[in-house]
Amino acid sequence: MALTLTPNISDPDGFYDTLLAAHEGLSKAQSDALNARLILVLANHIGDRAILEAALKLAARDGASAS
Amino acid sequence: MVATRYETAFKLYPYETVEAAQSGAVTRHKVVIIGGGPVGLALALDLGLRGTPVLVLDDHDGAGLGSRAICFSKRTLDIATRLGAGQAMVDKGVVWNVGRVFHGAGQIFEFNLLPETGHRNPAFINLQQPYFEKYFVDAIRTAQQNGAPIEIRGRNQVTAVTQGTGPATLQVETPDGPYRLEADWVVACDGARSPTRDMLGLSFDGRVFEDNFLIADVRMKADFPTERWFWFEPPFEGAGQSALLHKQPDDVWRIDFQLGWDIDRQKELDPDRIRARVDAMLSSQTGTVPDYTLEWTSIYTFQCRRMQSFRHGNVFFAGDSAHQVSPFGARGANSGVQDAENLAWKLDLVIRGLAPEALLDSYSEERVWGADENILNSTRATDFLTPKTEISQIFRNAVLDLAAHAPFARPLVNSGRLSVPCVYDGLSLNGPDGFDGPALSRPGAACPDAPVGAGFLLDHLTGGFVVLALNTDVPDIAEVDGIPVTCLQLDPHKDDPSGALANRYLGGAAKAHYLIRPDQHIAARFAHARPDGIRAALRRAICRKG
User: Fold this and answer.
1) Which residue in A24, B107, B226, B354 has the fewest CB atoms around it within 10 Å?
2) CA B542 → CA B116, B379, B425, distances in Å?
């Protein structure tokens, strides 16, 4: 299986809302911790190391182009 | 003069006048081992039992004071058992299975190692290093009585090593003055600060970790459970980043505090200050401080590094002199004893003229491989324990937070991955992997133990090449190029009704042949081997070409 790069989330606006809502009222440190926990939970759900590495690569590339 | 650098716990090899020091005669020795610690003693015993003369030189007269290495792994115990020192270690050692991991004030989880059955030795014992050395010396004394050519000279300090085209020349200092000797082969088992390495001007590169660890051994009669307790961010005053509590024999507990980099060593070693920390830790679960005495304290920093090669002509390096790791995972002394067993049979065969000298290069090839695995594991543990950046701290704590209620996060918690022997995957001595057998017994692996009759499989692998025939006939072969081969025929269902032997060596196969090296590592395996297949694999395992 390859990393899914086509839209895969139903109700994207609703999901984005939920993501931001989870951070509401949190300090920067609390938000960072929440993000880290979320990444670990999702990474475990995916499990497949090849997919995880492809995801890491993609995320790192976008970060590099922004800076 | 021979300076005393440390006190000894046991006087094991008291100084005796060396005749050569009086007469000035230069004696030539086959093998000289520098350093009578766990590695040097294991090597001396292994060589001596094989009949190869060996001289051990140590600048002290026994085991240094202090518990130091306290966790000895199954592989180390298997080696010690083959050499006749294992039972005493297991009898004295503390076997533990339950561990608890705390983050701050709360326990996040506990684990039970649930040891697999069907092995002679436990996965781990805790035992103070001086006992470990003493039991090796006891076994050496027994071997000497039976004629093993082993000599240990206490308070004989090597002050110069010179290599030329012939044997190495060693300058040795004793309380009665200096003498010189020659050695065909020298093995430096003289620790992380190896004077031999410095004398030969060889480098030792790697990473220094900016951290200080305070060890306190306390003796107490309190009814504490035999468990390993590990704290991340311990809640008690001045405990630092992490803390560890671990039981040893004689009612002694090892306590480790990770203090950080900028500390005043002298101040931190003040007994009152240590006691305040220990009081806080011991009372953290029960609210009361049990009676205890401080046995030994020390502060150490550590590094992860190794030499480029563990062989330099006729000088070898084994144990901490060749490679150094962080203490997490008990990979120091355990890997050093594996170095010793790897070198012993190779050196013995080369000295007897039964194997080419190239076999000795495979010592470095295989043990550098092992050292790199140990350095990788202990570096990862260190990075988890001491996050180096803000984001690594955030992820580390996210793992710990999740581990309290989400089992998936627990394997990510790393307070040290306990030492297991490396598999020499893809290295040059390995022969064919001739059938789809269990991964744990593939060529390059140390033989997994299994019940055989009233004893165990490893009892039958006593130090030579062995052909193991499972459910099949033994090939007609008794020696290869003068090296004896023993054949061991077993019927897994009859010899081990528990099924462990079949599981560990056959998997789904009905029958198999294994060629096992003198160090109990698997050289090759076959669905069915003919004598010429065994012969080719054995020749490969001793670096004989063609």
Assistant:
1) A24
2) 33, 33, 17
